[in-house]
Each structure stands twice: as structure tokens, then as C-alpha cells.
Design goal:
Layout: E1 7-12, E2 18-22, E3 39-40, E4 43-49, E5 52-57, E6 60-68, H1 78-85, E7 122-128, E8 134-138, H2 139-142, E9 145-149, H3 156-169, E10 173-177, E11 195-197, H4 202-207, E12 213-217, H5 230-233, E13 239-245, H6 247-250, E14 265-269, E15 297-302, E16 305-310
Parallel strand pairs: 9-13, 9-14, 10-11, 10-12, 12-13
Antiparallel strand pairs: 1-2, 1-6, 3-4, 4-5, 5-6, 7-8, 7-16, 14-15, 15-16
């Protein structure tokens, strides 16, 4: 015996357009509690939380706004249909197929994500590949250092830029330490990079802030004086220092790594081998985690707990004048 229809209305977050969908006929989610993974016209269904659903189809983010187990009247428009369906009484099943790659931030669904309520200073880092949820860290518990490791072209600088945008959106001040001309951050004009300063001006820049601060240091291995980041370490717990370099350097105790507090984890992008995890406190990585390295995709380790993540892309902007 076939399942009864389960009608819903989906609203495109970009355009505001509504469309009625029979979720059983399309196998998108089926009945509430259905453990099967569905897709619509080959587009994977990503996840649902508390009555809202996200999926990526034709590069649009859709949101479920109503649901019912009988067909709504066909002579009404989308808006009356939304009121007819109402909100589902139960929590829909949690489903996820895949995070598209590359993933622009505009399609990441971050605006709908909620920070873990127990975190005092939550900061999103990327989308978890196995669930589609946003992965967060608590800057107070997991700081003050966030290592971002990876080989060349792994997306380290892009990750710094993306995380700077996440922090700025949450009201943090951002300070970009400019000391390496090879870093894309040195010439980028993105507003989310905040205040720019040389390494020896970091203390002055920090004194001009009063709240939580994200300090970006790309190519940290090129920092000449190992004590130049001390003002951020001494900033009364307000500063999270995001440093980027190769996995070999970040797992060593040479140069600036000798004076920085030991990190409790970090972000490893495009890992090349199972032993690369030492840079973020992991002994050995599963073979499947290193089988297909891609820029911006990697492993986030926090307090010994590791998960595969993808950092959404934010384009660098440069002055072409």
C-alpha cells in the first residue's frame, strides 16, 4: 500500500518564490521519521531542523515553511497555501547527502544556523560533511590559538578570510597582521579583514578594541620575531589568534610556535597523508579522509574530537585602479 501524500510548501530564500511539493512522490523526505535518504531530480536533500529544510537545487537554498498530509486546495496561490499547510507538529528527520564543492558562502545556509547555546564565544568554522550542520568552536574554551594547516593551494588564506567574515558578522573586531607579501591577505581589500597592522603594531591595534577580537596571521612561519604575537596572548582572553602555515611547521616547536600556547585542535585543509593530523592534535587520519584532498575541505579537530568540514568560499577583492 502506498504512502499517503505529504505536501509541503518550499520557499526559495533568495527569491521568496513558493512552490508546493509532494514529498512522498518526489522521495525528498517521505513521511516524518522515514529513514531513507531522498533527492529531487538528482539534487541531494541536505538537512531539516525544527521544521525548516535546506536543500541545494539549481544553486538555490530552499526553506520548508509548511507541511500537511493532504493536498491543499489547487485554486489558491502560494501564500494562502502556506497558511493552509501550517507548521509541522513534529521535528522532521535529519537528512544529509553531500556538501557541494566548491561551496560559495551565499549557499551555505549560515544565516539560518544557530550557535550552540552552551558556547560563550561561538564562532562558525565550516559545514560538517557527514551531517550538513555548521561546526562551531568556542573561542574561550578552544582558544586562544586556532591553527589552520595545509599544503600550498589548500585554501589556508581563503579559510582565514571566510572565518574573518564569520567573526565580523558576530560583532567581533578583526585585526589582520600584514607581514608576508606572498599572502593574498596582504593586498586584499575585503572589509571583513578589518584593521591591518604590522606585527610590531599589534599591541596598539588591540588597545583600540574593547570586545572579542580575531587576529589573523597568514604564513606565520615568516614572522621574524617570535614574541610579536604576545599582545594577543595577553589580551585578557578576548583574542582568538588564527595562524596559517604548513602542517610540518605548525606541529613543530620552532620559531613563533615556541612562544604560542599549545593549541587544543585546529583546522587541517586538503590533508595529503594519514600522519598530517599531528598539526591539529590527531595521531593518525583515516585513509578515506586523505583519499581526495580538495582546497577548503579538511578536518576540524576540537578537544580531540575530529570531523570533516568544508569552509565556504569568500572571494578576495583587490584594488585594480
Amino acid at each position: 500500500m502506498g504512502r499517503p501524500p505529504c505536501w509541503c510548501v518550499e520557499r526559495c530564500c533568495d527569491t521568496g518564490d513558493d512552490v508546493a511539493v509532494d514529498t512522498v512522490r518526489t522521495r525528498e523526505v517521505g513521511q516524518l521519521g522515514d529513514p531513507t535518504l531522498g533527492e529531487v531530480d538528482g539534487a541531494p536533500f541536505d538537512h531539516e531542523v525544527a521544521g525548516e529544510a535546506l536543500r541545494y537545487a539549481e544553486r538555490r537554498v530552499l526553506r520548508r515553511v509548511g507541511e500537511a498530509e493532504h493536498e491543499p486546495p489547487l485554486d489558491v496561490g502560494p501564500e494562502p497555501m502556506v497558511h493552509h499547510l501550517g507548521k509541522p507538529a513534529e521535528r522532521p528527520p535529519h537528512r544529509f547527502a553531500d556538501v557541494s564543492w566548491p561551496l560559495p558562502r551565499s549557499q551555505s545556509g549560515l544565516e539560518l544556523a544557530e550557535a550552540p547555546p552552551a558556547y560563550d564565544a561561538p564562532l562558525p568554522i565550516g559545514l560538517e560533511l557527514d551531517s550538513g550542520d555548521w561546526a562551531w568552536l568556542d573561542a574561550i574554551e578552544d582558544g586562544p590559538v586556532l591553527p589552520i594547516a595545509g599544503p600550498p593551494k589548500s585554501g589556508r588564506s581563503s579559510a582565514l578570510l571566510a572565518i574573518a567574515g564569520f567573526a565580523a558578522d558576530r560583532g567581533w573586531d578583526v585585526i589582520t597582521v600584514v607581514h608576508s607579501r606572498r599572502s593574498p591577505l596582504a593586498a586584499a581589500e575585503n572589509d571583513e579583514l578589518g584593521c591591518r597592522c604590522s606585527a610590531d603594531e599589534l599591541g596598539i591595534a588591540l588597545d583600540k578594541t574593547t570586545g572579542r577580537v580575531l587576529v589573523l596571521v597568514d604564513d606565520v612561519q615568516r614572522l621574524a620575531d617570535q614574541d610579536l604575537l604576545q599582545p594577543a596572548i595577553d589580551a585578557d582572553g578576548r583574542a582568538l589568534i588564527a595562524i596559517a602555515a604548513s602542517a610540518d611547521f605548525l606541529s613543530s616547536r620552532t620559531g613563533v610556535m615556541r612562544t604560542l600556547p599549545a593549541a587544543d585542535g585546529g583546522l587541517l585543509l586538503a590533508p595529503q597523508g594519514p600522519l598530517d593530523g599531528s598539526a591539529i592534535g590527531l595521531r593518525r587520519l583515516p585513509d578515506e579522509w586523505v583519499a581526495n584532498p580538495r582546497p577548503g575541505r579538511g578536518i576540524l579537530a576540537i578537544a580531540g574530537e575530529a570531523r570533516q568540514v568544508q569552509v565556504p568560499i569568500t572571494d578576495f577583492r583587490y584594488d585594480v585602479a
